[in-house]
Specification:
This protein is mainly alpha-helical. It has three domains: 9-36 and 488-619, CBS-domain, CATH 3.10.580; 45-249, Clc chloride channel (Orthogonal Bundle); 266-474, Clc chloride channel (Orthogonal Bundle), CATH 1.10.3080.10. It is built from 26 helices and six strands. The chain has helices at 12-18, 45-81, 95-98, 104-119, 129-138, 147-160, 168-185, 190-209, 212-224, 229-249, 266-303, 311-325, 334-343, 353-372, 380-401, 409-425, 428-439, 445-462, 470-474, 493-496, 510-518, 544-548, 557-560, 574-584, 606-611, 613-621, and strands spanning 504-505, 528-532, 538-543, 568-569, 588-592, 600-605. Strands 1-2-3 form a three-stranded mixed β-sheet. Strands 4-5-6 form a three-stranded mixed β-sheet. Helix 2 (45-81) packs parallel to helix 6 (147-160), helix 13 runs parallel beside helix 15 and helix 15 (380-401) packs across helix 16. The protein is elongated, with a radius of gyration of 32 Å.
């Protein structure tokens, strides 16, 4: 063999035989020291521990939700009725007796929230989900422990004093904070903490509405950013446990009752889809309005030197004034949603379409100003009220324009309620299933699917970020918006590895190798070279630096090997190979075969991993030419 030629893997056996080195079928002792990527099981012991904690979280979230509801009732009774009671009362019922004094009650609540945010934690400001998303994306799912009790307490003061929010946002945030706290108290990975945080958040939503499936979907779409058994199962079981507690404490009746939905006609389905598209456009306006108000308060702080601690109190002035004029805008407002969906025109409620329009406009202004001021509250209930009212109004208008379509205004309200959340948050599946779970109307699923999908489509076209992501996107955090299976996990090492490998026999002297490296021959520029023993088994890998450093020219290749080789099997995925490269900080992996233990069958490098993405780009971005032609006229025989 000439100085400028060294054997490839296909010539290793021949080279060993030529040099008088027998090729034995037995494996060398180095096989026991190989660094081989371990294949992770779908569910292991650690995953089962996370499942157990998720169930505990779900049970705890169920009681936390009930505690927060009663705490809000307590603050409401003290603030509006002057009574120490946990009876469920609406702030609106006290407005006629309080008169203009009602304006000051939300202001007091805003002052308390501002003080708690300044001297407790700024994390209690806002509606909870964006803050949880930010911790997942930037802080390895670590939420400060004090948020676990500060968030529900601040929300109780904000909502109990008339804040136009739902209790679900703070409960979701509290559940997530509790999950994160458990993950920080015990030895967990960042991924496991994220799962616990999402399980706690999903349990909070399920405990509030008794809607476990939509809670799981919300966690997947807004917090987990993945869909795999190790994370999905704990979240699902946590939500199921929380729902069980909800049923035991509150009952299993629908949260929002409405008349039975009949099978919709084709004309009605088209109308609901159009309604969803309109709601989608309005959802983008709602999102922009929220952040425009927030920018206004930022301007107030910078230009007029008003500390952000006082912003909730300033925003609460608008809440009080609007509440004085339209009392039903004060407080949680779940009863408003039920009225919009099912009983607005009944004698017990006695609303007109004009009043619905007034309530929607007033609730929107009150909520946008309060949320933009940075107080503590949720977004789901206000959005459902606004969307349901808009759906009702648009549906009634369509009914007058196209009476033959057979539009049910209650279904239109249901579609509007879900579509505005689908458009504003991009949680499409969670929105659809939530509307079903809270009304238990199976015939509403098809209108919901059409309307929410159209809203989602319009929102994606018109708006880059959502009401959940705009705030953290402004801080430079990139939020995943598309969830796809890992492409590298679908490609095997044997599909991209180089099969022609330059391998050095262990007894070859360094001087000959250096001549080869300087020759410019094919493969001489490689940065790493496997070393094989006399039996053709892999001993290790030497880098170019190892070969060119000051060792004597008569040194044998085998003596230069200092550590066991880091290898990969040809049936491993490129994801396993890439992780192995990173874990051991190497640039190349010799490839072995399970069918031929010890045999070197190829090599895969970091550049091979990158080149594999060419197929992904081609499949997703390069349309292929038509491969099938359909003749319109068959030639005569």
């Amino acid at each position: 063999m000439s100085d400028g030629e060294l054997p490839t893997s296909r010539k290793i056996e021949q080279a060993a035989t030529t040099e008088g080195l027998p090729v034995a079928p037995s494996l060398g002792p180095v096989m026991e020291q190989l660094h081989i990527p371990a294949r992770q099981s779908l569910m292991d012991r650690r995953a089962m521990v996370i499942v157990a904690w998720a169930i505990v979280l779900g049970i705890a979230a169920g009681f936390i939700a009930e505690f927060l509801r009663r705490l809000i009732w307590l603050v409401t009774n003290i603030a509006f009725y002057g009574q120490f009671s946990i009876t469920d009362r609406l702030p609106a019922q006290a407005v006629p007796h309080l008169g203009a004094w009602v304006i000051g009650i939300p202001v007091v609540g805003g002052i308390i929230v501002g003080i708690m945010a300044r001297y407790g934690s700024r994390a209690i400001r806002g509606h909870g989900i964006p803050e949880a998303m930010e911790q997942v994306l930037t802080n390895e799912s670590r939420i400060p422990a004090r948020v676990t009790w500060l968030k529900p307490l601040s929300a109780a003061f904000a909502i109990g004093t008339g804040g136009p929010f739902g209790a679900e946002g703070p409960i979701i945030a509290t559940g997530g904070a509790l999950g994160s706290l458990i993950g920080q108290l015990f030895r967990t990975t960042s991924s496991e903490r994220k799962t616990l945080l999402a399980a706690g958040a999903a349990a909070g939503m399920a405990a509030t509405f008794g809607s476990p499936v939509s809670a799981v979907l919300l966690a997947v779409e807004l917090l987990l950013f993945e869909f795999r058994p190790r994370s999905l199962i704990p979240v699902a079981l946590g939500a199921a446990a929380a729902t069980g507690v909800h049923f035991a404490l509150v009952g299993a009746r629908p949260v929002f009752e409405m008349p039975t939905i009949l099978t919709p006609s084709w004309g009605a389905l088209v109308a609901y889809a159009v309604l969803g598209a309109v709601i989608g456009m309005l959802s983008t306006l709602v999102t922009r309005a929220v952040y425009a108000v927030e920018d206004g308060f930022e301007h107030l702080g910078h230009k007029m030197r008003v500390h952000w601690m006082w912003w909730p109190a300033i925003g609460a002035v608008a809440v009080g004034v609007i509440g004085l004029m339209v009392p039903l805008t004060l407080g949680v407002g779940y009863s408003n949603i039920s009225a919009v969906l099912g009983g607005w025109e009944t004698p017990q409620v006695g609303w007109t379409l004009k009043f619905v329009a007034l309530l929607v406009a007033a609730k929107f202004l009150s909520w946008v100003i309060a949320l933009g001021s940075g107080t503590s509250g949720g977004t789901l209930a206000p959005l459902f009220t606004i969307g349901g009212g808009l759906g009702l109004l648009i549906g009634a208008g369509m009914n007058r324009l196209v009476p033959a379509a057979g539009i049910d205004v209650h279904v239109a309200a249901l579609v509007g309620m879900a579509a505005i959340f689908a458009g504003a948050s991009r949680a499409l599946l969670a929105s659809i299933v939530f509307a079903f779970e809270t009304t238990l109307q199976p015939m509403g699923l098809l209108p919901l699917l059409g309307g929410c999908s159209m809203s989602y489509l319009v929102s994606c076209v018109l708006m880059r970020n959502t009401i959940m992501t705009e705030k953290i996107a402004r801080r430079g955090v990139r939020v995943p918006v598309e969830y796809a299976s890992d492409f590298l996990d679908q490609v095997l090492v044997k599909e991209v590895m180089a099969r022609e490998v330059i391998a050095f026999p262990a007894d070859r002297v360094l001087a000959e190798v250096r001549v080869f490296l300087a020759s410019g021959a094919a493969g001489a520029s490689h940065q790493g070279f496997p070393v094989i023993d006399g039996q053709g088994h892999l001993l290790g890998v030497l880098t170019r630096r190892d070969l060119l450093d000051g060792a004597a020219g008569d040194t044998r290749m085998g003596t230069l090997v200092r550590r066991p080789p880091v290898v990969v099997y040809d049936d491993c995925s490129l994801r396993e190979a890439a992780d192995h490269l990173v874990r051991h900080d190497v640039g190349r992996l010799p490839v072995m075969s399970r069918q031929k233990p010890g045999a070197l069958v190829g090599i895969v490098t970091r550049s091979d991993v990158l080149k594999a993405h060419r197929r992904r780009i081609r499949e997703s971005q390069e349309p292929a030419a038509p491969t099938v032609s359909i003749p319109f006229f068959r030639p005569a025989v």
